[in-house]
Structures are given as structure tokens and as C-alpha cells.
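User: I'm preparing a small set of examples for a lab meeting where we compare how different chains pack in three dimensions. I only have the primary sequence for this one, and I'd like the structure in C-alpha cell form so I can line it up with the others. Please keep the answer compact; I'll paste it straight into my notes.
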Amino acid sequence: MPNGLITRRAALAGTAAASVALATRRGWAAAPATVNIGFFTETKPTMIAKGEGWFEAGAGGKLNWTEMGSGADINTAITAGSCDIGLATGSAATAAGIAQGLPFKLIGMVDNIGPAEEMTVRTAANIKTPADFRGKKVATPFGSTSHFRLLGFLKTNGLTQRDVTVLDMKAAAIVAAWSRGEIDAAYVWAPAKSKILADGGAVFPTYEALDKAGYVIADLVVVRDGFAKQYPEAVTGFLKAYGRALTMYQQKPDDSAVLVAKQAGVTPAVALADMKEYDFVSLKDQASDAWLGGTAANPGKLAHVLKGTADFLVEQKSIKSAPAVDAFQKAIDTGYLTKALA
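Assistant: Understood. Below is the C-alpha cell output for the 342-residue chain.
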């Protein structure tokens, strides 16, 4: 470079370097180069934000997507530092993670699951009552909300895992095993549920009775503590992107179904039918006491749901102990939701 001559590129580079240095001195963090996301292929508005690149734009960095088999897998990855954000991890795994002191915060909610995850039985197996499950093989992803509900179904109907063979299978493996005739029933979410229903399956309704018995399940958003502390704006932008996708679904459900179907590998009609089974909670409602809001002295609804879930997991010997309900509220941080709404 000739003396006294500074190119525009060099000047810009110098300005950028100075900005980064200033941000570092002030405790700010530049946008993350890569954000590791643990997710599930599901028929939900989350797939709109993923497919359209809204999550990436909101986070401000390249997203590395890893499909998980269950929320328990997300817990393991967060603990190892290989997952920054868990997208739509189930309330059962979240409750277990909080009880075990894992390094994450619960920052958002995707949905109140309701009937979207349900027991599906093979029509040919002639399962009409809970007693008919004796001697049958039922598959579910262990460590998931479906697993939690299945165990609740057995308990509330006087059945044990000595009466029913419960098999640990990921969603894709359930579809494959079903097609081979290897299982009699499954507790799983869509699109796997939709596929086995279309292949000789029928819904065996359980969710209303289980909800009343306290087996409420939800899909949540969690973030690794270290990532959230370093990149708070990326976390806020990620939630804002989901809010945008949810608004699109609410305003244009048919158009949304087309985008979701492309990501989930189903038809738009199936995607739309699946989404109608979920109670998708707006960002504003998520932040209220009806869900994530509350204080340690006066915990909100979700903290109580998580506490009840953790107590059941202790009873099942899935985890060793569960703290008081205020510990679950302390693990919830609605600050990112508040910023996303602003």
C-alpha cells in the first residue's frame, strides 16, 4: 500500500476492529458466529421461522441445526456445551434439567400440547380399554413429554411396566417399527403420529383425563446460561423471530401450512390439521402469570406444572430429587420475552 494512502476497505476494517474493541471494553458482545440449535422436526410455526431464515436473522449468526430425539438429548447437549438453544424441548425434560441444576434458563414457550401428543394404537391390536394394553408393546421416546404422559397413563389406570412392554424409540424409529408391525401402540408427536395414524392406527384418547390428573405438558424454549450471558440480543432476536412466525400462522394458516409441510415432510392438509391440535401461546401470554410469569414468592402456573412433573419423575426414579416450586420459578427468565415484545 503506498505511503499516505489508505483504501476504503482498510478504513472500514479499522473502524470495525475499533468498534469490536470498544464493545469488549464496555462488556458488550458481538453477534455470535455460530448458534447451535437443538430442535425437533414438527408441524409447528417454528418450522416457518426455520425454513424462511427468520431464526438466523434474529440471532444474527449462522445457525447449526441438530435434530434431537427427545428433550433429554437437549439437556445432555446443553450440559456438554454443544447446544446453545433448545427449541420446543418438552416440559418433562425441562423439569428434570432444572431439578438437576443444569446450566440453562427457561426463556419462552412454544405451545401447550393438549391432544397434539396422544396415544395411537394399531387398529388390528383391538385395544379398546386400558386393560387391553396388557401384554402389548408401546413405543415412545424416553425422556420426552410423550414418555411422561405414557407413564402417567399407566399409573392412573393401575398398570405397570411389567404389564406393558415400553420401548424407547425416537420418532422416526417409531414410524419404521410401526410399518414393520413390531409395535402395538405408540405415544408420540406429529408428524410421526400422523404417519402411523394413516398406516392402520387410531387415537386412544388419554389427554383430557391426564390433564385433569396433573399431567400437563408443554413445549418450551431453553437457552444455555453461558450463551445467554454473552449474547442476550441474539436470544431476544430468536424469540422475536418465533413470534413473527406465530403471527403468520394466526393470520394466514393455509399459507403457513404450506411452509410447515415443506419442512416437516407432510402435506399442507396434514400440517394444518396437526397445528390445530396445539394451543400456541402468544409471547405476551407467555410472559404473564398464566404461564412463565411470577416470582419466587408467588410462582406462576408453569412453575407449578414443572414442580409437579419433577415430583412424578422422582417417584418414577428418573431423577433423584426435586426442589421447591420457587426453584423452578427462579429458573424462568421472562426478560428476553419482555424485550422481544418491546
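A couple of notes for your slides: The chain has two domains: 34-113+217-341, 115-212. The radius of gyration is 22 Å.

User: Perfect, thanks.
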